[in-house]
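[job 0412] stage=fold_complex status=start
inputs:
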Amino acid sequence: DSLERMEILAGLEERFGGRFPEDILPDLETVHDVVAAVEKYLGTEVRKRKASPAEIPSEHYRIEEFPECVRMKQNLGMLDLTGLRNPFFNPLESVATNTTRLGGREVINFASYNYLGMSGDPKVSAAVKEAVDRYGSSASASRLVGGEKIIHEELEQEIVDFLGTESSLCLYGGHATNETVIGHLFGPGDLILHDGLAHNSIVQGCILSGARRRPFPHNDWKAADDLLREYRHEYRRVLIAIEGVYSMDGDIPDLPRFVEVAKRHKALIMIDEAHSFGAIGATGRGIAEHFGNVSRGDVDIWMGTLSKSLGSGGGFIAGSAALIEYLKYTAPGFVFSAAMTPPAAAAALASLRLLRAEPQRVARLQKNAALFLELATERALNTGMSCGTPVIPIILGNSVQCLQLSDAMLKQGINVLPILHPAVEETAARLRFFITSHHTEHQIRHTVDVLANEFERIRSESLSPLAKR
Ligand code: PMP
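[job 0412] stage=fold_complex status=done
writing structure:
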């Protein structure tokens, strides 16, 4: 189809450099046409003769010379050139909740998605210790063949009770969950439409599947609808993949609209609730509870991670009994992988029980997020599309200023990380704040004050270089 041709041309332009003329699209029918066009318009010889071993360039077999390695080094070099501290891989010396220890001192922390303070909670830690004593530190096998522990089933039952799905399955990694499940359920001849800002794990799952993949503009259910109207009939299965709360921007998609579009076109829908599970909806049941008018059965695949609100590590899939049974016996990342460790399962189970017993944690989280957003807005900071969820970006649109601001914040005892180009567009470079239920009102007010003042200082210094002297 024409979309696919455009994608091929864009890929060739990126690979070989140069541009094709706008009107070339209808002329490309065969691979031969494409090769001829590349040779004619991009000036590249595609049909290569066999190279002798002596002619194989070293960038094809020396890892440090791979172009992508060289590019990454250059990016790190630019970081060095700024003379600023590298903010990545900060080794923390304690639990990360509203505070943490870094470089030998306690700082206010906004760099961790321990949304409900479960990691480090004494009850959760006690459950982990008990699980280690009872089951050991490892499951020591795939669950299918010897690694199943009672605690895995208990955790899955607790998720089912909490969400109200027919069944659920836990896997050892959140990223791996998306990769293996999407990669396994879909294949060549299928189409996956995903949000333009979808998490890397969703994109990797699509690539692994071999299905055709089309991003649609962020949150634009109308664009998804248009694509399906035009192309649905050309494909076997179609999946719409979206998130409950977007991890860089903190906004929420219009789920009822997406559900309606998916149903109308007989497409499946999957929601990644990594940042919405435990965080939105009055009792933390995520985006379905947030909207109120979406029932569990309206979404085919509910996905969540255990590493955020549930203070552990891993991912889960919840949905119909048919879906879960099929994955349990066949999903490669589950079947051919050692089970989630017993302490990880215990942490998630204890956290979920605590979340159910103490919904006030969710209320506190939501109150804190709303307060941070309100104060940041009052100080005219750009919070993008964030809407009261615990992910709040402060968009500066300048990677160097982001580094400077992150550095200045740390000097003032506040840990918050920058998200820089090329992770986001330069105009979208930002600091990203993760709010937790444990932040105090004072910590939030103090942080926004420091943030606004430091940003103002950095901005004015960059406008008038003389002021630096
Ligand atoms: N989905 C989303 C939306 C995420 O933000 C993340 C990363 N935090 C993942 C999946 C992967 O989860 P995990 O880090 O637990 O592997």
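[job 0412] summary: The pocket of 4'-deoxy-4'-aminopyridoxal-5'-phosphate is lined by residues 173-175, 178, 199, 201, 243, 247, 272, 274-275, 305, 307 (CB under 6 Å).
[job 0412] exit 0
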